[in-house]
Amino acid sequence: MKSTVIIFPGSNCDRDIANALQKYNFQNKMLWHNETELPKTDLVVLPGGFSYGDYLRTGSIAAKSKIITEVIKHSNKGGLVLGICNGFQILIETGLLPGILLRNKKLKFISKDVYVKVTNKNSKYFKEIKQKVLKWHIAHNEGNFFANKNIIKKLQDNDQIALKYCDASGGIKQDSNPNGSIENIAGILNEQKNILGMMPHPERAVNEDIYSNDGKFFFESLLT
Amino acid sequence: MKISVIVTLKKEVLDPQGKVIQQTLNNMGIKNVNEVRQGKYFEIEINEKDPNKAKDSAEDICKKLLTNSIVENYKIIS
Amino acid sequence: MKISVIVTLKKEVLDPQGKVIQQTLNNMGIKNVNEVRQGKYFEIEINEKDPNKAKDSAEDICKKLLTNSIVENYKIIS
Amino acid sequence: MKISEKIIKKHGLTLSEYSEINKLMERDPNLLELGLFSAMWNEHCSYKSSKKHLKKLPTKNKKVIQGPGENAGVIDIDDDDAIIFKIESHNHPSFLEPYQGAATGVGGILRDVFTMGARPIANLNVLHFGEPSNSKTKNLLNGVVSGIGGYGNCIGIPTVGGETNFDESYNENILVNAMSIGLAKKNNIFYSKAKGINKPVVYVGSKTGRDGIHGASMASAEFDENSEEKKPTVQVGDPFTEKLLLEACLELMKKNIIISIQDMGAAGLTSSSIEMSSKGNLGIELNLDKVPCRELNMTPYEMMLSESQERMLMILESGKENEAQKIFLKWGLDFSVIGITTNTKNIVLKYKNKEVANVPLKALADKAPVYDRKWISHKLPKKIKKKVNYNGYKIKDIFKKIINHPNICSKKWIWEQYDHTVMADTFIRPGENAAVIRIHGKNKGIATSVDSSPIYCESHPLTGGKQIVCENWRNLVSVGSTPIAITNCLNFGSPEKKEIMGQFVECVQGISDACNYLDFPVVSGNVSFYNETNGRGIKPTPTIGGVGKINNVKKIMTCAFKKENSNIIKIGKTEGHVTQSIFYREVLGIKDGPPPEINLFNEKNNGLTILELIRKELVMAVHDISKGGLIAAISKMCIMGNIGAKIYLPKKLISLHNYVFGEDQSRYLIEVEEKLTNDVQKILEKNGVYSEIVGKTQNNNLELDKEFSISIEDLKREYFNWFDKYLN
Ligand SMILES: Nc1ncnc2c1ncn2[C@@H]1O[C@H](COP(=O)(O)OP(=O)(O)O)[C@@H](O)[C@H]1O
Ligand SMILES: [Mg+2]
């Protein structure tokens, strides 16, 4: 599979995601945000970090980059677009995904391992995942997903909720919600299920000697 | 000329910052505050002498960049 | 009653956000903006009918929590 | 403008220093020139009170590539890799504006590291706050922690460790020390010494504003009642610009263009331009009209003394300006050729076609006064002779109080606000003995820890100085790394008082003794004096940041118990030293008596033996015993591993209280499988290391003979909840 990681000024997980993709045999290219053309690619990744320092609203300025028009075209043709953390925030600001990511409920940056449960296995992203829960790391200040009732209903009806924060045994409870997200939502898909935005970082969990190797399941599923 | 703009979250949107401020005030012993909502304020120096044109410019800037119209409102105050 | 407050960075203090916004507007083709400064806006619902007392409360809140007087100024606007 | 006495004082200079300036210049300086002197001659830049004593510190071993004197120290970690690291204080600014003060502290230390050609790979921080009940503490804690996180998280460098302490002596003078570690190629390290004349002097980064003018002199001035009112302009950090500056500098460093480079830290353009040219024994001429300014009508004085953040000064090869400029423009940063190197050995400043300053570099850089300040020696406090009565102090209650004490309990509330996994190479996270970072793409790694012991240092500076080095060494050993070198930040009160100067001199002596013995040299550091308010100083607080090397990250060791029914072996003898322990000071309220003694021979022997055991894969967990004694150490191993333990009582018991809470040094706990116990004991015997089996791991409960039994769940509650309770 061919992938392209876009680098914005202030991206800082671009190297990490590129390493993970390469490790699982994606043919990956890096692309600077000022470019006006996407290389031939199956997957476009908007990486984590603090594009433009998170100034104004997270993701808002990167969403105005030249390359974003091309990313939108790519997704309209059914191409895969993955936004992780700041990438998710950018997807929201471009309007490719609904809702908003507010500041974490306690107004603190949170860096910790969480458990997430895949709540939709019909997308290209998660179809091969057998694990009941995945232990992934989150590291963000604005991951508190919020949307009005209508949007939430739509997300539920169309099966667009991809990931929810849960406890180690898969229970979706208030206690296992790290940031105040509505319905414990950690990631969502668009209606066509080719665009995924999520807060956790699977790319930080791709080594058996580090705290979790559960990123592996995500990349392997995506590859097949 | 200088244009000032206020951007607020729509009523229905949760405001975690406002909420924490209200709680903190409460903890500090200031008990008469029922609600706090936090927004943004911008001062934009526009190279334009005609106030109407400057305001039009500011409107444009608010729509194109300063606000996310799904969750925010703006008001040009001067 | 509701009190609105604007908090701005003092003039000589660097405003990295404002700087990036101005540059972005420029990149987007909006060239007539010389400077943008970003501040905060608060709406405080105070349980107090007397406007003067409410304003005093708001002053107190600004001083004690909402601003750091070393880098910021505040203005109660209504 | 006539230079009055008042102006001289305002510049932090004494009258005799001024007359020295007069002599060196052979005329009266103008105000701008006086500003240059005030920046270069203040304590922060000139080390005038400390220089004489810092010379005692060992600075070399087989692995040191660059010791003190550059922006940061450099060590060799084999292959073509070098590690560059340093610690620095940002105490006063953090007290005035905790978020920005702490944030810019992180920004400053990062620049020290990447200016030498390294990509930063880890940050650490040492925080000392006033007592929790002080009305300012909560706000300072919140602000400082968000500031450190705000900067480090944004730029994308993991913050992997630190130390946090509360004590009333910091009520009006908190300490914020930030450390950064970077990775570079040995053959591509950049230094600040200029070479060659007529080379372009280039300014890059953010524009210059009126921030922190006189910051460097402020950092060396005592606080008084008015200083909260004085409201000096504090600097505001822009981590986004720093990230761009980092990437742009590293991109430029791949080309053969930079002759020398220096970040603009304290005293900004003044110290960077003067240091680079004086180190190269050259002259320098700057055209201040070319300095990118954020505000209109900035004066030469303001430009030279501004401490705006995120700026660098470089000297480039002639004719390469355009190539360099391209890179900085791509990253959206200011780039301006502001001067040239000359052979005059003077700094010449021009503004609007006029010469506005002309001073011999030697006078500024080398002729700063060096003081041999008076100091007095601190005697070892007498032992407490009278037997202390522990009646009514149940072990269980004391124990609970200790693990719930803010200086012992988990600092999770803090480090969860720091992105500690970005870059995906954090192999041991905060909350352990030391953090471990893998060298990207390789099997090797580094371990790092920061440590300080203000209580021991106050009680007996010489012992305290040794102790902090040893504790740091122990932390690095515990994770299985070979300690290589340290950086240090020496935080003290006013050196003009002979007691405090004595604390300084003897702490430095202690550090030096331990470093020498352990072959653990100092490669960089920073001195922060005048941490006092209304004449009351902080406890002497030298902090040590150490780095060790790990050959294979697969073999690292943690302190978590791994399974039930293994033996818990204690290395090192327990004498039951309780004075200056947390038990005596915080529970009994007894504050006299000496701190625990340091025996450097045992320290080294025990540590090297632990390393041998780890390498031979004979142990499953290792933890050093420090504050809170044996019981605090075991409980942490239980909590981290979710496994209980039963502690036996030794046969010849000194006193149960002293046995479990004593803080004797050079001790470790190891977890060993029953069947390997013999092999381990053989090695211990062979090395002449004192050891005893103190207990066994078990399911669920921590038990001390018949004294108490507590479930791991309850233990965790005590260990983890202090911060949440305090802040809500
Ligand atoms: N301010 C901080 N930032 C990051 N980590 C911290 C901070 N304070 C403490 N820690 C972490 O908590 C752990 C315990 O620290 P400390 O109490 O000093 O233990 P030790 O006695 O083993 O050195 C260390 O791993 C340290 O990295
Ligand atoms: Mg420590």
List keywords for this structure.
heterotetramer, B: 78 residues, alpha+beta, Mth169, Chain: A, 3 strands, 36% helix, elongated, D: 728 residues, 7-stranded mixed β-sheet, 27 helices, 28 strands, binds adenosine-5'-diphosphate, binds magnesium ion
Can you characterise this structure?
The complex is a heterotetramer, with one copy of chain A (224 residues), two copies of chain B (78 residues) and one copy of chain D (728 residues). Chain A has 224 residues and is of the alpha/beta class. Chain A contains five helices and eleven strands; from the N terminus they run βαββαβαββββαβββα. Chain A has one domain: Class I glutamine amidotransferase (GATase) domain (Rossmann fold), CATH 3.40.50.880. The radius of gyration of chain A is 16 Å and the shape is globular. Chain B has helices spanning 16-27, 51-66; strands at 2-9, 33-46, 72-76. Chain B is elongated, with a radius of gyration of 16 Å. Chain B has one domain (2-77): Mth169, Chain: A (2-Layer Sandwich), CATH 3.30.1280.10. Chain D has 728 residues and is α+β, with helices and mostly antiparallel strands. In chain D, strands 8-10-7-11-9-12-13 form a seven-stranded mixed beta sheet. Chain D has a seven-stranded mixed beta sheet with strand order 23-25-22-26-24-27-28. Chain D is built from 27 helices and 28 strands. Classes of the chains: A alpha/beta (224), B alpha+beta (78), D alpha+beta (728). Chain B binds chain C through residues 6-8, 18, 21, 24-25, 28, 30, 32-48, 57, 60-61, 64-66, 77, and chain C through 6-8, 18, 21, 24-25, 28, 30, 32-48, 57, 60-61, 64-66, 77. β2 (33-46) of chain B pairs antiparallel with β2 of chain C. The site of adenosine-5'-diphosphate has 16 residues of chain D, from β4, β5 and α17.
Architecture blueprint of SSEs:
The complex is a heterotetramer, with one copy of chain A (224 residues), two copies of chain B (78 residues) and one copy of chain D (728 residues).
Chain A: E1 2-7, H1 14-23, E2 27-32, E3 43-46, H2 66-76, E4 80-84, H3 86-94, E5 100-102, E6 110-118, E7 134-140, E8 144-146, H4 149-157, E9 161-166, E10 185-189, E11 195-198, H5 215-223
Parallel strand pairs in A: 1-2, 1-3, 3-4, 4-11
Antiparallel strand pairs in A: 5-8, 6-7, 6-9, 9-10, 10-11
Chain B: E1 2-9, H1 16-27, E2 33-46, H2 51-66, E3 72-76
Antiparallel strand pairs in B: 1-2, 1-3
Chain D: H1 5-10, H2 15-25, H3 31-41, H4 43-46, H5 51-54, E1 64-66, E2 73-76, E3 81-89, H6 91-96, H7 98-114, E4 119-129, H8 137-155, E5 159-166, E6 175-185, E7 200-205, H9 215-219, H10 227-230, H11 239-253, E8 258-263, H12 268-279, E9 283-287, H13 300-305, E10 311-316, H14 321-330, E11 334-342, E12 346-351, E13 354-360, H15 361-365, H16 395-403, H17 412-415, E14 426-428, E15 435-438, E16 445-451, H18 454-459, H19 461-478, E17 482-491, H20 498-518, E18 522-528, E19 532-533, E20 536-537, E21 541-550, E22 567-571, H21 582-588, H22 600-615, E23 621-624, H23 629-641, E24 644-647, H24 656-661, E25 668-672, H25 677-686, E26 691-698, E27 701-704, E28 708-711, H26 712-720, H27 722-727
Parallel strand pairs in D: 4-5, 9-12, 17-18, 24-27
Antiparallel strand pairs in D: 1-2, 2-3, 3-6, 4-6, 7-10, 7-11, 8-10, 9-11, 12-13, 14-15, 15-16, 16-21, 17-21, 19-20, 22-25, 22-26, 23-25, 24-26, 27-28
The complex binds adenosine-5'-diphosphate and magnesium ion (MG).
Residues 163, 449, 451, 475 of chain D line the site of magnesium ion (MG).
